[in-house]
């Protein structure tokens, strides 16, 4: 069994985000730079067969490249996670997240959450919300990935199993 989720990698903004977080009085234990991502759909424990179905679904998914402003902070009290995310985001992001969550639900995965709050978890074990100025980062998302969460003696690591380019659905040029 593998613990899986779909997410947008942060690529060139992960180091600036960590540098920004580490200069501030940020609550909790910092998430390592290599683990930063913008969550699309948490899927949970998956069998090998379910993993293969998710890989096939990811390859069929369409979404144009996205520009997402990470311009607010937040906190999930139950999860004790402090994060940054967008105040507003493109509708295509919600559509992509919903489609990926539904792929998981069709094969018996996911946690049943219906709402979507795009976010990048910057720390765990946070007992309070960040009391910092609003961030000002721009995520230029050009791909999404299916990640596997692996527990190691040094903590959890997130490894991409496959990534796909964000691309719009091809338009029919036959006039049909």
UniProtKB/TrEMBL annotation:
It is an enzyme of class 3 (hydrolase). It comes from the Bacteria. It holds the Pfam family 2_5_RNA_ligase2. The keyword Hydrolase applies. It catalyses: a 3'-end 2',3'-cyclophospho-ribonucleotide-RNA + H2O = a 3'-end 2'-phospho-ribonucleotide-RNA + H(+). The keyword Hydrolase applies. The active site is at 37 (proton donor), 119 (proton acceptor). Hydrolyzes RNA 2',3'-cyclic phosphodiester to an RNA 2'-phosphomonoester. Belongs to the 2H phosphoesterase superfamily. ThpR family. This is RNA 2',3'-cyclic phosphodiesterase. The gene is thpR.
